[in-house]
Amino acid sequence: MAFNLGKSKRILQSLKWKISVVGLRENSFRSGWFRHDCTSSMAPLAPTCRNPDAVLIGSATQFVIRRFESTTAEKIVDSLCDGEDAKKLLDFPGGKVAFTSEMTFIPESPMDRAHCYRVLHDSGLSNTSNFAQVDKEVAVKMYANMLTLQVMDTIFYEAQRQGRISFYVTSIGEEAINVASAAALSIDDIVFPQYREPGVLLWRGFTLREFANQCFGNKADYGKGRQMPIHYGSRKHNYVTVASTVATQIPHAVGAAYSLKMDRKDACTVTYFGDGGSSTGDFHAALNFAAVMEAPVIFICRNNGWAISTPVSDQFRSDGIVVRGRAYGVRSIRVDGNDALAMYTTVRAARKMAITEHRPILIEALTYRAGHHSTSDDSSRYRPVSEIEWWRMARDPVSRLRRWIESNGWWGDEAESELRSSVRKEVLEAIQAAERVEKPPITEIFTDVYDTPPSNLCEQEKLLREIIKRHPQDYPPDVPAL
Prior knowledge:
α1 runs antiparallel to α4 and α6 packs across α12. With about 475 residues, the protein is α/β, with parallel strands linked by helices. The chain is globular and about 85 Å long. Strands 3-4-5-9-8 form a five-stranded parallel sheet, sandwiched between helices. The protein has a two-stranded antiparallel ribbon with strand order 1-2. The protein has a two-stranded antiparallel ribbon with strand order 6-7.
């Protein structure tokens, strides 16, 4: 079938008029899709709220038009008007694709690796002004929180080695990712952590006593002693409880972000995970879901080079994680994760884009796990001790930020000594206090899931009590049986 140019233009004008009449133009979609009243842009389809089916049909129609806008009648007719150019382009869902007579395979990797955004050199000095300006109060608080996290990790790790707690995971070497990202967020932003982000909680006001209560699983623990140590959670601080299952928090964050968008909240979700987490199916499903649904979520990948004992070279052949964002249509950036100012600037910009533009953002933070994966791991078995020490000393994010605030005249040796002493004292006191608090009763194991416990759960509770009664020597004496 052939169209002459004049006829094509008339068809185009007719189609444009018809599309505008039923309220399906792109502008009307963007202005009315998330409105929950009767005055939305769908009014021509459902003039009142008396016919909810009509509203639903209108919503679905707009949804379909938005998803496949590249195949609308208007664009098809536009391509017919292009003459010779139309023969060089394929109007396909997602956008126009240019034809070529050259058979060229897309290379498996680019010639140059993606650059890494950095503000502070290892020396703590900077030769750029391309970063978000941080005042003295915020900078000193960031440093104090990073130092507190470092001291807390050291003491809790020792407590585990002494047998006082059963397990622990440190954040040594990754303090900047924790604290600087938290400083760039709002308390209304919902955090879906992995297990190496206690610095986010610390920034939001979680106390050392609360950390200790969770690690000791006592009666004051918000999880009632049901979780392993370091599996923190706080509804007050919008920090979803840590789950041991790797990467399950990533799709959860996307779903929550979409909910915030539907409710038109001025907030986003943030999820943290390691390079190992990016090797799971949940990561890929979450990125695709977030891109398609335009969810305001920030993905922060702590690429520390190791998924426990598996190096990144055994996980993937791509240029890290940052390049994966483009494949899914997600705006992405690579940043020096040991540079607090670079992390702060990046997350601050990412948050603004996520909320104002309704889009996901992927941040790959290059860092290094300067400690063992956990207290169950000995990383010297699979990586050189000299490598660990080099990162711990030469590229320590805490020392780097300290040198920067000192260069601004905001910090000195006296303040450093006072802070280290007070933090160490407070952590030790928190541990001693948490040890004295009694454990939650056995009953709490079976509560908070069912309104009325089913019979099989009641049988399990009864059986457990009988076993404890017969073998009391095999169970902790400080756990109340009632």
